[in-house]
Fold this protein.
Amino acid sequence: MPDYDAIVIGAGNGGLSAAAGLARRGIRTLLCERHNVPGGCATSFIRGRFEFEVALHQLSGLGTPDKPGPLRGLLQQIGVIDQIDFVEEDTLYRTGIPGVFDVTLKADRSEIVHALKEKFPSEKKAIENFIGLVWEFCHQLISIYYFRDQHASKDRYPLYFKYALKTGGQVLDEFFEDPCLKMAIASYWGYVGLPPSRISFSDLAMLLWAYTEFKPYHMKGGSQALSNAIVDSFLKAGGNVRFNCGVKKIIVSGGKAVGVITEYGDEIRARSVISNASTISTYTDLIDPETVSPAMLKKLASRTLGPSAVSVYCGLDCEPGDLGIEVSTRFISLNTDMDRQFALCRTFDSPEMCGLTCYDVADPEFSPAGACQVVLISLQYADHWYQIPPMQYADTKYRFAKGLLDIAELVHPGFKDSIEEVEVSTPLTHLRYLGHPGGSFYGFDQYAKDSNLFVSPLSPVQGLYSAGAWVGMGGFQPALESGAAAAKAVCRYLEE
Amino acid sequence: MNRDFRTEIEGYREIEKELSVLQKYAIQNIRPQELVTRITDRFHPKRIKMRVSEIREETPDARTLRFVPAEGYLPPFHAGQYINVYITAKGIRTARPYSISSSPFQTAYYEITIKRVTGGFVSSYLLDTVNPGDDLETSGPEGHFYYNPLFHGNDLVFIAGGSGITPFMSMIREVTDRGHDRTIHLIYGNRSPDNIIFDAELKERAQRHTNLTVANIISEPPKGYDGYCGLITSELIQKIAGDISGKMFYLCGSEEMNRFCREEFAKLNIQAKHIRSDSFGLPGDITLEPDWPASVRKNESFIVMLNGGVSLTAFAGEPLINALERAGITVPNSCRTGECSLCRIRLVSGEVFQPAGVKVRKSDRRFGYIHACASYPLTDLKIMI
């Protein structure tokens, strides 16, 4: 008899939600994590008196207790909803170009329309029409996919069928003239990892709609609190966890996944395996590529690695208000050319776009009294980082980080003088801690061709399932959802 | 669901075509995971096999060990970082972190400088039994006590005690050899003039470089000693460093000395953002800590039960990790001062003492995780590794 019903490789968001989902259904589950701390991206680290949030900027899909989003139900199912203190943010973001425009969008449809009309009065009508389109489009999308309308058709859902696969940029161009207005609406593009000209309108619309309807959230103690809560729930449900225990091989026998071999050479047998490693690692490293069909390898090869980032974690010895930081999330651009900003993600040139997140605005207890933490982020692919001689890495890293600090200083004078701690992460840092090629935390790039309209999560061998950003989209909500889905699929498989 | 409806979405066919072209011409990267490992190892190898190439006597009670790689290469490091040195002595596998004292200018070798500690298990082993030609394992360079160009400025004051000079030696070698535009005032405390490590080199560098000053402070001066004597007080700091505004203060000594200096910093109104500190250990006697419970004696022993049923004996006065190692249980570790969190384990039941300032995450505290290197048993314990 196998040692376990299921083994989950990796305790990132996807692996954690899969493991808890399984254990709470009474499935004998082992969770293996090569680090000593669970969470993957959903983690924190301490410098001085600050505990820095590593990855979570705004949690999507949670919704309020009265108007729950999909994530609330999921967290309930895995037994952690009451273990976490969520902090609701009332604002989506502040965005703009210093000296050119500056607009703040509240997480409320009519306030978004109002704020945009005030800043861009010449395009009042177009703003109303566009926001109307976004909302109606998302309602149609949800009817089709979430409520699984059996009779979905072009006639029933004309907006969906017309706009779903257009790029965000095409639709913005159709409605608007002012490039600042386009940027104001599309500022969330960094959360997908591609500029509006390259993401589908579906993704752009859903970001705006879902964050507005379900509100952006953070949590007390940061995302590490979520990871710890899920591990706790998993253990209480009888699950077994091994930290400091990497998996080096998935055992395949007779076309079925039947266990794993750990980095120490231990062989552990199970009736199924869920991998929270990257799809690339799972298909070409954890199992022998010879086991995978050539067609599947071709599909894998046709995809590209999503971006990583440089993050500058700043502990400041002042309150956010002292620097004029009044919203949790701010996007600062130096020009309206989002394609150029994206192109810079492949160079060491000074970034021209910077995300600024301050967790203490919505949760004053996040940092010690009188202090706050701010994370500056700029997307970066990894390839050019591979080329730096190790001896020059630190200089390169600091030079890049300085570019981001300069942007922060531009909009919040006094920022640099308030720094008490700074840590910088780069694509190589993310590569090291996640073990993902390219240090990619969103998984594959998310072009329209990469959506689940075209990519189905097929497994190369029976009994092997995947969870995490590489399965669908990147971000906390999608990764947690992929884990829940994998747990369900494993249950069905084990019943058969 | 009727899947076919999707093909009617405008643009669907074009993307299908795009996909078939991509799949036709895509080149399969074979095992890209190897690249991940290679890149990671370039900066952060898990372990380095080292050979001791030479040993130099610095003072009667301190020696420098030079390590060269027995295989592979040495990654670059920040002056001020440490390596964890793994040893097996008397059947016990353990490790201690030592700051690298050599210049980061080159990575042909790393040097660590070890001062004899009375009763020091690892320092005695390294000083008494290791010879040139011997092999040892170390971690890669780690730690966060180093110059950060983003906010440390150009005016630095280094305050060292005893072997706390080692990270500063690396920093001083870097700044002077590279000609960096940074001014350094070193204030170096020792018990007697005989204990001053790197004395000649420091004096020589200070003579050659106007941006380096060196002040030795002797706490137990011999008769007739005419240098600075006593403790590193606020008056002394001000006298040597001059105007303190805009200066960054780095502190590295025993935990006791660091505490003393922090109080002196407070008298000078030096803000937290202008202080970097690295302790080379936890308090020597943990039971002297202000909030240590009076009812628990230093040598009191407790039973520790592990998941899997193993049990062992641990003493109140020593870090839990030592008891685990004595019982042959290795927990990953690096800093051994409660910072790096590698030795994070779950406390299932029982109570431990954790000194103030140990860097345990908020949610770890809530869910019962502790750092074994900075936890002292106060009752019988159940832990999960």
Summary: Chain B has a mean pLDDT of 93.
